[in-house]
């Protein structure tokens, strides 16, 4: 297991301990260990093999064997025992916004509530009234958040589904007979929320039965839902359904295209194939009448047979990609390594876990030329928002670090709260100190669409604002964004020459891909930002790149594909227009 997976499991164990009423100091130790593992630059597997885990800060003799098992074996007896000891419905209850482990345990111990259904009934029947920690608004909040959960039931974030899918893919690829395999479905199309995991494998027909049997015995398989000669569906321990399909090598390119989708895209391809005298399905082309057929070795061959440029999976949503592919006008995809830096990163000056120097060092290790530090403004006291004195000290620290570096720069920025009326948290004098300013909404979500939209537009008019952070404020599978008219906000950004970010945090992915193309057409520059709160979070830009690709953006549409010289000039020009 990699550090991120280990950290997630240690965090889960800490939560399970809290639900079980375990020693709070032990729970806190596990929470702290999860945080430290997530920001560690060294792999736990290396320390586990060397027997040096206990030399790491926050990892004692009790934790070390658990981490070693996870790192080297991918499992832990302690984890399994904890999962068995806690009613599974309590974990579901934690998904309700506002319910932490202490409140969930209280509901279980006092009222016997052990599932989302019993929680809903108790709220509807007024049984929560008078229970410590549950005020008058608790009933309405719980019922509203339960309704959101119903909407997102059985859905997972892309990162979570992708992590589980890659583990399955590695296991399937090792099964005898498999020549090639791939993730398909919505993961391959880089959708922000995933329903289930689709895996496709190619193998000689005589090996199919053995592959299906081996898949059912995969160590992370909780139970087999169904199984047939070429398809098996399982529920993983992670709670995600996974479907495996096995086809012959000759059918593989057709099956990969078909099971990647989307349905609308596939319908258009079948119609196009029919116009050429073929029937197209997941097994191949079949001639209609006396026409000839065509074999394909790759997906590229399939699209070429239909007279199309190869259409990347991200674009297969029937939003004009068929027409563009026939005309040779598909957008140039942003390469995984084309970002030269990023903005909107947090440090220990506010609610980040790493120092400015550590974040800069990690950025340089990624091959970047710059990083923008944008810690919170003073209104975000819950996130350690800076005071004016802190701003002065942080900028001095950044200048000192920059003086020691060559070919790399730290830009001094701020994530400034957009206040309810649309004004900014800092005064103009303080705003003038920064290289750039990210303006974001963090509070006051319960506004009308007109109010929320005007609030953001007013902020975008401000001369010191460089870019808009997480434009809708959504948290995927947790809460809806504020009711903002995104197109009107994009129009305002175009009018005032402002940048809009794609917040690449997998819980946000905001700006959504469906709005990126409109921003591009309006000439609005996009910045792919990780909203990183630790060095590990810098790598989340890859999810933002996926959003940009899916939204038809090209490198020229993205601010941070620019090198250091050009991005410095771009920010300097913005400062000059603001009179800084």
Describe the structure.
With 580 residues, the protein is α/β, with parallel strands linked by helices. The protein folds into 4 domains: 1-86, DNA polymerase beta, N-terminal domain-like (DNA polymerase, domain 1); 156-249, Beta Polymerase, domain 2 (2-Layer Sandwich); 254-327, Beta Polymerase, domain 3 (2-Layer Sandwich), CATH 3.30.210; 341-577, Alpha-Beta Barrel (TIM Barrel), CATH 3.20.20. It has helices at 3-19, 24-39, 44-50, 63-73, 77-85, 88-93, 101-111, 116-124, 138-151, 158-173, 185-188, 208-216, 252-260, 263-275, 299-305, 321-327, 356-365, 388-403, 428-431, 449-461, 486-496, 513-521, 541-550, 564-577, and strands at 156-157, 180-183, 193-194, 197-202, 221-227, 231-236, 241-247, 278-281, 284-287, 341-345, 370-376, 409-417, 436-440, 467-468, 499-503, 526-529. The strands form 4 sheets. The chain has a 7-stranded parallel β-sheet. α1 packs parallel to α7 (101-111) and α3 (44-50) crosses α4. The longest helix is centred in the first third of the chain and has 17 residues, at 3-19. The radius of gyration is 26 Å and the shape is globular. The two termini are 49 Å apart. The mean pLDDT is 93.
